[in-house]
Design brief:
The chain is an all-beta fold. The chain has one domain: Nucleic acid-binding proteins (OB fold (Dihydrolipoamide Acetyltransferase, E2P), Beta Barrel), CATH 2.40.50.140. 0% of the residues lie in helices and 45% in strands. It contains no helices and six strands. The protein is globular and about 40 Å long.
């Protein structure tokens, strides 16, 4: 985790189960769409660059999260 002032650990700005409306900015090396929330990378499988989609956060790791399209 990134460290903030005075060495405290910063947690990711998203949590499992949260829902966001995002715009896909790029495509990752494995074909997943990439967006960012407060600078934090979110991978969204099954999306294309420029798409605006509603996503649910499925998994949060230290440096990125994985989300799925909310139906």
């Amino acid at each position: 985790m990134k460290k903030g002032r005075k060495g405290e650990k910063l947690s990711p700005p998203v949590s499992v189960g949260e829902v966001y409306t995002v715009t896909i900015e790029a495509i990752g090396s494995k074909g997943d769409g990439i967006t960012r929330i407060k600078g934090f990378v979110i991978f969204v499988p099954g999306t294309k660059v420029g798409e605006q989609v509603r996503v649910r956060i499925d998994k949060v790791l230290r440096k990125f999260a994985v989300a799925s399209i909310e139906e």
